Amino acid sequence: MTAPAPGSAPMIEMKGITKTFPGVRALSDVSFDVRAGEVQALVGENGAGKSTLIKILSGVYRADSGAVLLNGEPVHFAHPVESLRAGIAVIYQEFSLLPERTVAQNLFLGREPRTRFGLIDGARMRRETREVLSLFAAAGRIDPDRIVGTLDVATQQVVEIAKAVSTGARVVVMDEPTAALNEAECEELFATVDTLRTRGVAIIYITHRMREIARLADRVTVLKDGEVAARFDEVPEPAEIVRAMVGRDIADFYAAPATAGEIGPPVLTVRGGGNAVLKGIDLEVKAGEIVGLAGIQGAGRVALAMALFGQAPFERGEVTLSGERVDFRSPRAAILGGVGLLPGDRKSEGLVLMQSVRDNGMLTSRAFAPLWASDRRNAHADTTGMDGLLDRMEIRAASYDQDIRALSGGNQQKAIVARWLSMRPKLLIFIEPTRGIDVNAKAGIYHLMRDLAREGAGILMISSDLPEVIGAADRVLVMQEGRIVAAFGRGASEQEIMHAATGGAEVAA
Ligand SMILES: Nc1ncnc2c1ncn2[C@@H]1O[C@H](COP(=O)(O)OP(=O)(O)OP(=O)(O)O)[C@@H](O)[C@H]1O
Ligand SMILES: [Mg+2]
Question: Ligand 1 within 6 A of 51 CB?
Fold first, then answer.
């Protein structure tokens, strides 16, 4: 494969695509194309129709009207298997790898090489797996015999992309591929995308992050309310993309930092906290304060969150919450004690997909209401209050009684945020709070966090999005190998934080 001359005919063309779900017009008359050897960014707010467009391309959904052309020929895919056979691979927001199988088994699933006796040729499978993986800088170290479920998310993603390439995909679609990756892993993914591009693959790249568009895209298509709002043949300034997405400029993306008068006494104090992963954790989060927690994957940030939340408790040290010694041995105990935790992963959060949007928002408060000793009335977040929160999150749904499964990914995430906000915990831990959330709603979450802090909560925010940590937090702590190794006030640079996160000198927290 070689990259074709610029300006060549589109490899994929979608013309006049319209798609209606009950009560929602997801797409109306959308036209879109992507050429070999280019990255076409597809952006838009949560619910704008991006994933739906991709699902029509791959044969998951059928368009009400419109046409899909592959190399100028009309195609009709009734099932994703058909589009995959035609060379279109989609890397979904949720992975499709089988976690209990090896890397090689996943790569060759359903098309295993056979010996002449008809047995699976394991040696050849491993060799070819190594060959495919060697295309990707990030994948050179992956053992073909490794069980996929034991790999970190970033590596699983490389395997998923390698799988697409090994099946001969000429079109690769990535739907928010960096949502679960940290900074360094994002760089690896970008290199992978560059490799695909130089190999002449046509790439459709869906993201909510402006920096990725600037880094990767050749062209940009903006969807808004199911229509094409703008098309850019060259990547414009982020502000211009945001304007096309949201329909206006966003002022005050981050909320104003806490003023000295807004910071109260410590809500959380940890002294000498430790367990199998964590070492000598000294930490304080004050009322009114948002503390950001940065670090690379495996630095112990999530372990710290899990210790505070009673999921993987501290084995050493002292923890006080609002001045009282606590020792949470279960999440339930932590929740009852006033600790909330918002994981970024929609699935692990146990989003109850069968429920309506409003019920999901109210789920936690209702489940714990009888036990939520300190403030029962608050815990019984009434429906009106919940609707208000859902409104503030600008959740895009036909109605709040709608089944949450039908919401776009980002809107599901917003419903979870609303759920926790209704509980008013003393300490609220956010893990990757804006993963998969559109630029406008991100601003909404930062402002909600600030409002919660102003109302007296202490907030600990774990995020791999460095601009977010810097912009939204009053202080930033950096973890490395289970320890807090550095502390920064406002105005720290990404370089300083990265330096500390990747092995800079030890600094007292
Ligand atoms: N299976 C479905 N049934 C009903 N409505 C649906 C279904 N799938 C999507 N929708 C609706 O279609 C619209 C577009 O959703 P889509 O998932 O394409 O958005 P998106 O742009 O991918 O958003 P996000 O950035 O949140 O992933 C939304 O209003 C969504 O609720
Ligand atoms: Mg989507």
Answer: yes
Which ligand minimizes its atom distance to the CA of 408?
1
**Residue 356 has what DSSP assignment?**
B
Spacing, Cα 192 to ligand 1 middle (Å): 28
- Structure token pair of residue 377: 């009335």
Q: Is 156 in the pocket of ligand 1 (CB under 6 A)?
A: no
Query: Is the CB–ligand 1 distance for residue 49 below 6 Å?
Result: yes
Distance, in Å, from the CA atom of 379 to the CA atom of 226, rounded to the nearest integer, reads: 37
The protein residue with its alpha carbon nearest to ligand 1, atom 12, reads 26
Residue 60 belongs to domain with CATH number: 3.40.50.300
Q: Which atom of ligand 1 is nearest to the CA of 208?
A: 25
Q: Residue 184 pLDDT > 80, yes or no?
A: no
Which tokens hold the place of 271?
Answer: 């002294």
| CA distances (Å), origin 464, targets 137, 181, 489 | 21, 8, 18
Which DSSP symbol is given to 9? P
* Beta carbon of 46 within 6 Å of any ligand 1 atom: yes
Q: Is residue 216 part of a domain?
A: yes
Rounded to an integer, the average pLDDT of 361-379 is 38
Name residue 227's beta-bridge partners. Answer: 224
Q: DSSP assignment, residue 78?
A: S
How much is the pLDDT for 317? 97
Total-model pTM: 0.72
Residues 330 and 460 in one domain: yes
What is the total count of domains within the chain? 3
Residue with CA closest to ligand 1 atom 1:
406
Does residue 23 sit in the same domain as residue 61? yes
301 and 431 part of one domain: yes
Count of other CB atoms within 10 angstroms of residue 507: 12
Q: What are phi and psi of 476, to 5 degrees?
A: -125, 125
Structural domain that includes position 364? 349-424
Name the residue among 296, 283, 257 with its Cα closest to residue 491. Answer: 257
Question: Ligand 1 in contact with 408 (CB < 6 A)?
Answer: yes
Within-domain flag for 155: no
Domain-located, residue 307: yes
Ligand 1 in reach of 48 Cβ (< 6 A): yes
The residue among 388, 395, 448, 457 whose CA lies nearest residue 429 is: 457
Q: Contact 226/48 with Cβ under 8 angstroms?
A: yes
Q: Assess if residue 199 is contained within a domain.
A: no
Structure tokens at 167: 């099946």
pLDDT digits (tens, 9 = 90+) for 297-323: 788 998 999 999 998 999 999 999 999
Q: Which ligand is nearest to the CA of 43?
A: 1
Query: What's the gap in Å between 436 CA and the centre of ligand 2?
Result: 8
Residue 190 phi, psi (nearest 5)? -60, -40
Q: Determine if ligand 1 sits within 6 Å of the CB of residue 409.
A: yes
d(CA 457, CA 181): 28
CA–CA separation, 459 and 339 (whole Å): 10
What would the mean pLDDT of 76-82 be, rounded to a whole number?
90
